[in-house]
Amino acid sequence: MKTTLDIAGQTFTLHRHPIQKNETLQAWDAADEYLIEELENSVLPDNAHILIFNDGFGALSCWAIQKGYRVTMVSDSHLAQLSTDQNLKDNNLEGVDIISSLAPLPVDADIIVMKLPKYTRFLVWQLQQISHSARMNVQVLAGAKAKDIHTSTLKLFEKHLGSTHTSLAKKKARLIFCQKEKQLESAPAETTSFDVADYKMTLQNHANVFSSESLDIAAYLMLEHIPSDESIGHIIDLGCGNGVLSVEAARRNPQAKVTAVDESHMAVASASANLLNHGITAERVECRVNNCLDGFPSNSADMVLCNPPFHQLNTVTDHIAWQMFCDARQVLEPKGRIVVIGNRHLGYHAKLKRLFGNAQVIASNRKFVIVEAYKQPDSKGMR
Ligand SMILES: C[S@@+](CC[C@H](N)C(=O)[O-])C[C@H]1O[C@@H](n2cnc3c(N)ncnc32)[C@H](O)[C@@H]1O
What we know:
- By secondary structure, the chain is α/β, with parallel strands linked by helices.
- The chain has two domains: about 5-180, Vaccinia Virus protein VP39 (Rossmann fold), CATH 3.40.50; about 190-375, 3-Layer(aba) Sandwich (Rossmann fold).
- Helix content is about 30%, strand content about 30%.
- Strand 19 (about 360-365) and strand 20 form a beta hairpin.
- Helix 4 runs parallel beside helix 5 (about 150-160) and helix 9 (about 320-330) packs parallel to helix 10.
- The two termini are about 25 Å apart.
- The structure holds S-adenosylmethionine (SAM).
- The site of S-adenosylmethionine has 20 residues, from helix 7 and strand 13.
C-alpha cells in the first residue's frame, strides 16, 4: 500500500489514522490529486484563505498549508479530523483550523475546495451553507470519483450556488467548477424529522446522519429486541446515529444510564436532541463523539447495543465493526452483554463467538440477524 504522495514537487507521507494492521487502502485518491493539480494551476492571492470541505484523511489540508495558505478544514467525521491532524504532524506541518460541520463557517474564504460527501442531503446542506455564508463570486472546486458525479449532482450546484461545469475524467476522477452567484438569506434548517409511529418517536436528524430520512430497517428490527433487565446500570449505544436505539433502550431500562457514541458530530448532536426530546432526563444521558470506545474505562458498561457501519467514506469495510466488538469486550463488565444486528452475510455471529467464546442468535428475519454475546469473566476470547 502506497503511503507517499509525490505531487507538484512535494512529498507527503499519508496514512489512514488510526493505523490498522494490514491496512490495504491508501489515504488519498485520484480526486485529491486532480484537485491539487488544478489548484497548483490557479492564481490565488498570497496568504489566500482556502476552505476545505470533507478532506478524507488530510491530503488536501497538508498540501494547502505547505503552500503557505490559510486553511480551514470542515468535516463531520471525527476520524477524518483525527487523521488530518495526525498526517499534518507526521509531515511537520501545522496551522490548519479543523472545525466540525456544526460550527459556523468562516466568511472570508478566497476559494472553497470540496470532496463530495456520501449523502446527497449533506451535500445540499453544505451547498446551502456556502450560499448563505461565503463571499459572492467565490469559486467552489469539488472533486470525486467520476462515477459519483451525475447530471443531478451538477444541477444541485447550479440550483444552490450558480454556474457550474465539469472537467474531463482523469484516473476515473472528475472535478466540478462552480461559482457562487446566489445568496441564501437565512441559514439552512439544521435538522429534519420523521416519525416512527410504532414506537411513538419523532426523530430529529442533522444532514449527515445515517438513514436520516426514514428508519433503517435493521434498526427497526433491533428496536423490538432491545433487552429490558433491572440489573442493567449502564448501556452504550455504539455507532448511535440519530440515537433511535438509545431512546428505546432508555425507555425499557428506566434505571440505566445511556451513553450514545458516534464518530459523526451530527449523529451525536441528533442523538442528544432525540434522547432529551423523548423525556430521557439529562442526568441519565451522555452523548460523545468518539472513535469506537477509545478511552472508555474497562468493565464500565452492562450492555452495548450495536448496529455497526460497513462503510468508511465510500469504502466497504468490516474493520470498524470488528474494532467495535473488541472495544465492547474490553469495556463490558464481566457478565455484561453485547447485542449486535447485521446483515446475514456479514457473519457477525462467528466473529462474536470467536471474540467472546459464546454467541446466540436472538432474532432474525430474511435479511438480518441479531446476535447476543456475554463477556465471560474467565473466557479467553481471541482477538
Ligand atoms: C449502521 S449506522 C447505525 C446508526 C443507528 N445506531 C441506527 O441503528 O440507525 C452505524 C453508525 O456507526 C457510526 N460509526 C462509523 N464509524 C464509527 C467509529 N469509528 N466510531 C464510532 N461510530 C462510528 C456511523 O457514523 C453510523 O452512525
